[in-house]
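User: Working on a comparison across species. This one is Aminopyrimidine aminohydrolase from Pseudobacillus wudalianchiensis. Can you predict its structure so I can line it up against the others?
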Amino acid sequence: MKTSGIKVKFSERLYEKLQPIWRENHNHPFVRGIGDGTLDQQKFRFYMIQDYLYLIDYSKVFALGAVKANDVETMGKFASLLNETLNFEMSLHRQYAARFGISEEELEQAKPSPITLAYTHYMLHASQNGTLAELIAALLPCAWSYWEIGKELNEIPGASEHGLYGDWIKMYSSKEFGELATWCIDLLDEHTAEKSERELAKLEEIFLNTTRYEYMFWEMAYNEQMWPGEA
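Assistant: Here's the predicted structure for Aminopyrimidine aminohydrolase from Pseudobacillus wudalianchiensis:
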């Protein structure tokens, strides 16, 4: 994995190779609607409920990261991310959801859509059955793409001050969220520095698949898509 004698980080390889797919995510009408404030509130409400269910399983990936970590520092970071997600981010999520008329009871009783179920099951499968590098490759597209989207939307004049969607933009464009994404990126690079091309190709496939699921999640939310025959 060298170019003109210069070793390229695996994250840089992913970033360059998957830009076309990432741009599809950034340009999705759901994302653009958050940025210009035109997104139908009902669609965002649907998204908030499904995102809450997603975060529950995303937290489990952090727990698995602590189990698979090879050193105490990495173990502690994953444990910290698990604690922050379960006890702080999800609390903020519940408070934000209340602004859209979503009660805690509704969140707790909600059922995952087919896409939410498929995405989280794939991510957990890759994390449970693979190496730590495979776990990071599975979880990274969510954190990395949300940070990139947040920063891009934050550049739109007035977007971060929107009465309903501004706080979402502020959260994902924040320094704190960026530090989480950067830590995951650096950890992936650390654990892929000596990997063979065959191993890297497998990691790239995992990263590609969860990146695709990110697009499908936006599409699912925009169309408020549940199981056939269900409202």
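For your comparison, note: Residues 32 and 123 are 26 Å apart (CA to CA).

User: Helpful, thanks.
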